[in-house]
Amino acid sequence: MDLNSTKTMDQDAASPSRKAIRHPPPPPQGITELAAAAEASQQKLLSTNSIPTRQQTTEALRSCHAAASTLHAKIKRAEAESRASASRLALLGAERTGSKLPIDAKLQEVVNRVSRAAYTIITNPNIEMKPDFLALYVKIQQQLGRPESLPSVLDLYATKPKPVSKNGEIRYLSQRPNSISKAVEVEVADLALRTAIEAKHLDSALGIIEASYSKKAFKRHKLLKRATPAALAVSSLPFTIYGLSTAYAIYCQNTMDILTATTMCVMGFSGYFITVGSLGLIAKLSYKDHMKRVTWTPGTPLRYRWLREEERAALDAVACAWGFKEEFRHGEETGADWEGLKEYMGYRQMILDRVEFMQGMS
Predict the structure, then answer these.
(1) Which of 34, 74, 218, 310 is the one with CA 20 to 30 A from 287?
(2) Paired residues of 162 in beta bridges
(3) Radius of gyration of the CA atoms of the chain, in A
(4) If residue 222 lies in a helix (H) or strand (E), which one and from where to where?
(5) What is the DSSP string of 237-251?
């Protein structure tokens, strides 16, 4: 066998591997049935002109969620195989730009069909937007890695009219978007934001923050849930102090009359609780050790910092996800997206990479 024939055989043996690297592997069999099942549940739910029941809507969304859960493992496997066949330079470029690695077109089409079926269900005018429906929809898109529709659906949660059947007709009642009942749950907002970060979709991440953490309903819900117990405790404090002072004046001393002893005890207890409580409140609201890259602009009122802490933490997570992972390189990021992110935070009384808080600058 001559040298030329040996080279030809080597090239023929290497050609299949090159083709495998160039083209993503074919999708597993049976994925089209998953999309068909999700679309069938959607069509069955929306085939009638009446308002679907809560159970019917839940079953349709769960059908989409089951398909998305099955596709999730297949998507991850396809991305891993595509990542293994891609070059190191292509991987770095995809990580920086947020572009997705190529997977089989058939698998991508099935993902789009399942995502579209869930979106059609949740946005139908006859479907009332409920918290469990929203949570299930976010889980579906998280499994599929499709955060593009999450900002609009989160905003629709507060503004979508409520369908009501009366005298055989369906009427749509407008909702109050700033009411406490329209606040997105923290767990749902966190999952939606994590989905956008994993997909490297900056516009969706900022849109999710706008539609959840930044809403008045979210802040009012936090104020009612967390500030009400503290307000009740503070309002009952004068009665507690007076009761303790009276008990001390009657049972624990015999050098002063009861009125004088009670007055002195009230002054002492009040001074202690007011001083220590004020210092503790200031320390709690001005605590910065949990902040990584996003901090408040000097002069921002403490009450605003407390009310908008979840919004700041979400933007902090976005900055950490899009910036350099190495702490010593923080502040070296460039580009239109990064400059726009810094300007976006500046409008919200926040500073990205405050110099005196960076590593080695204090």
Answers:
(1) 218
(2) 173
(3) 29
(4) helix 216-222
(5) HHHHHHHHHHHHHHH
For residue 181, which amino acid is it?
Answer: S
Query: How does pLDDT run across 99-113, given as a tens digit for each residue?
Result: 566 677 888 899 999
Q: Tell if the pTM clears 0.85, that is, is over it.
A: no
Chain position carrying tokens 């009942």: 181
Task: Give Dmax over CA atoms of the chain in angstroms.
Answer: 120
Tokens 């891609």 map to which residue?
86
- pLDDT tens string 295-335: 999 999 999 999 999 999 999 999 999 988 888 888 888 88
| Other residues' Cβ atoms within 10 Å of the Cβ of residue 97 | 11
Surface-to-core class of residue 171, CB atoms within 10 Å of its CB (0-12 exposed, 13-18 middle, 19+ buried): exposed
**In this structure, what token pair is assigned to residue 179?**
């009411």
Domains of the chain, by residue range, sit at: 19-214, 221-357
- How far is 285 from 255, CA to CA, in rounded Å? 43
DSSP character for 262?
A: H
Look up residue 138 and give its two tokens: 């976010």
Under DSSP, the state recorded for 90 is: H
